[in-house]
């Protein structure tokens, strides 16, 4: 029996990060032993390549404004493990984490000792802990479940949602999901359930796959620019104003504080969910709650300004689509700044495309590394850069201090390349209370 949070984390970290046998068989076996807690949760399932966390935050913020208790299951975390499971923006307590883990782990041991299904993965057990927590310890009006990897074989795909969201589909986790957008889209579309509405912001060719799958499962499909739309009105600092349209319904002068026009798509997906749930489930969210919730929504590590002097931004872009959205945001919102980048990534990411996309738009690029098992080597990253002022500095803290000390009022310092790296750097700013 676990006594402390550290006991739980130690047991989790001893499990495999990914399964030898992909699938939900282990999850299903343990859930049956637990009495199927997933069936007692009113969930929204959110998948896609980029934007999942933003959709979670937009939805959570709007429904919290309307007075609902809203749970969220996300990955990865930015500052502390407990962020992965939260209610109304408050992380699971150590006490509740221990209690949920103590319910789950006996069945984990039974699975290993009595079946040939193999050892469950770390992510599977974390998912199980969240399901026990939301169904038995702290019940919520809604729970937002973010897909971990892919969709079809992801451990979250055991839930029975009342709505499904698939954001964009891009090149990520290709070792697990396939080498083409079509194959990746099929994995993402694997979360579509029979008769459950699908809201998506995906483009072709992924949209074709999602459309086919939705039709196969008789799932109503709400696709951006087909059933609903979003139109920018004005981009101020820091707010972005826009209009959302669905059929005859028009909501104008909406605003968000998340930086980047790509966030408008994520906000539109969340708004479509709100409209759908109001129509078919009587889950009400009045206009004032929608407007206030959107304005208050924030997402650490995504175009997050952590310092104004010098202007310093963290962004977790970690795939080609995310990096292109980052580049577009830099061009539209910060065209007059000299952008100086501190970059590292994981070795299994498409760094060639990511670095070339970014390095051609910036004035300085320092390639670094950090303490992580799959971290890239900075010398290899430098070979991919087309920025004339590209440097290697293995100690990221020294590199960051150098950028800060050299910066003037026309400089923008950007830290990006990996969410895990951004999370590590963010701790430095939190500790020094720079924001």
Describe the structure.
- With 435 residues, the protein is α/β, with parallel strands linked by helices.
- It contains 15 helices and 17 strands.
- The protein has 2 domains: 5-296, UDP-N-acetylmuramoyl-L-alanine:D-glutamate ligase (3-Layer(aba) Sandwich); 304-432, Alpha-Beta Complex (Protein-Tyrosine Phosphatase, Chain A), CATH 3.90.190.
- The strands form 3 sheets. An 8-stranded mixed beta sheet has the order 4-3-2-5-1-6-7-8, sandwiched between helices.
- A hairpin with a 2-residue loop joins strand 12 and strand 13.
Short description:
This protein is α/β, with parallel strands linked by helices. 40% of the residues lie in helices and 20% in strands. Strand 15 (364-369), helix 13 and strand 16 form a beta-alpha-beta unit.
